[in-house]
Structure formats: C-alpha cells, structure tokens
Amino acid sequence: MMILSRLNEALDRRAGLLTRNRILLESIDSTNSLALRLVKLCMDRGSPPPRMVVIALQQRSGRGRLGKAWVSLPEQGAYLSLVVGASGPDDLASLPLLVSVGLARTVAEISGCFCSLKWPNDLMVSGRKIGGILIESVTRGAVRPAAVIGVGVNYGGSEAVSKVGGVAMNEVARELPPLPEVISELVCGIEEELSHLGEMTYAVARFRELSAHRPGDTLQFRIGEDVQKGTFSGVDDRGFLVLQSDRGEIRLSAGEAIEEWTGESHES
Fold this sequence. Notes:
Elements: H1 2-12, H2 17-20, E1 22-25, H3 31-44, E2 52-56, E3 77-85, H4 89-111, E4 116-118, E5 122-125, E6 128-140, E7 143-154, H5 158-163, H6 169-172, H7 179-194, H8 200-209, E8 218-223, E9 226-235, E10 241-245, E11 248-252, E12 256-257
Parallel strand pairs: 1-2
Antiparallel strand pairs: 2-3, 3-7, 4-5, 5-6, 6-7, 8-9, 8-12, 9-10, 10-11
Helix pairs in contact: 1-7, 4-7, 4-8
C-alpha cells in the first residue's frame, strides 16, 4: 500500500529505537492488543521486550481508557502503540507524562495551534479532544516490567470525530503534512521526551507547563464506584491530580472525567 510504503520511508529517515524496531500494518483490531501479545511472549521466554512501535492505518476495535471505543477510521488518524521497558517506579510514573508532553508539543508544531493536556492524558486543541493515550503495564516474575502505550491522534475524518466531541488536525492545521510524515513526527516527538524516562522532576514540570486546567476549575472524576469532585489545585510531584473539596484535599492517580471540564485552553 502506498501510504505504508511512504511511512516506512519516513521512519527510515529517523534515528532511534522506536523507528528502527517497528511493525507497520494496514489494519488490525487494536495496536495495543498486538503489542501486549508481543510483550507477554518475550516475558514468557524470560526476556525483556525491546523498545518498539506498532503502527496501523486502521483499528477495527480501537480502545481508549477504561475500555471506551476510539474512533479509528482508515487512514484518518495516527494509531500506534509503543513498547517501553521500565527499570523502576519512576520510569512507570514518568511515562504517561512524557508521552503526553511529546505528543502535545508535536501536535502544536505540526498544526500551528497550542495543544494543552487535560489530566490525566488527553490532548486538547481549542477545548476539544484531538488525541489520547492508553497505558498498560505488564509484569512477569523477575523480568523487567514493560509498558504498552497506545496513542490515538485524529488526523482527518472530522465529521465522525465531531460527533463524539473531538477535533481533527485537518480542521485546525494551517498546512497539514501527509499522514506518513505526521505519524513519523509524532513517534520521534515521543522518543525525544523518552530520553528523560524516570526523571520525574522534568516530566512533571513539562506537564504543568501544558496543563489545560487552571486553579479553581471544577472537575469531577469517577474512580471505580466512587465519585470525587473538587476544584483544581495542581499536579503534584508524582503527577497526581490535586483537588480541593469540602472534605479537604484529594489526590488522584487516575480517574474518569464524568462531567464537562469548565476551564479554557490557554497559550503559554
């Protein structure tokens, strides 16, 4: 397929473990599902998986956080999953922050629009979601843990994306490069930030710079059967969301937003 060939050429021009260790597919059920199978296969043989990326032009069963479906139209988005080894808790804690920052910076560079980060890891342009991240960790005995980071960024298909409240790059970009170049740029943007893997001070500082939230924004999250509501106070040194509520301070490591965020996007 022509697009896959061009994507292969675009990645060949880049240096890095992710661009070198890659699987390119026209269509798949889910890039995360394949990446997880490969990780578990390596671990079952007693070996840590290599850093790699799985990229597809279409996902038939793309999924986001908490099992939600992700719109994955053919050749209308960047659908990829990264495999990254983790040497300790700081590696795992810094991963979602660094990947989010790398994506937001790259989306901004490509589109010419500021891209902010809505906690925990949504990419926002003009108050609408343009991309998201799903991270799943895998452990097997004494083998070094690894994480699979699923990434979805809307490139086109604006009508379908708009129906679910999102936005696509072709709606906001002044001049949009071809999809293969965009995917290549996104992969390299992530890999650049992964050079700081485990550096929590750096990761949190960069995430805060791009935060879509402002002090006083009202936020509400579901964690299991529990609902936590409060006003945004910040992101702490572990990357946890800090809310102020009638019951005092709340710190969240994860959660599902269950009402519209009341903040506005900003430029730094």
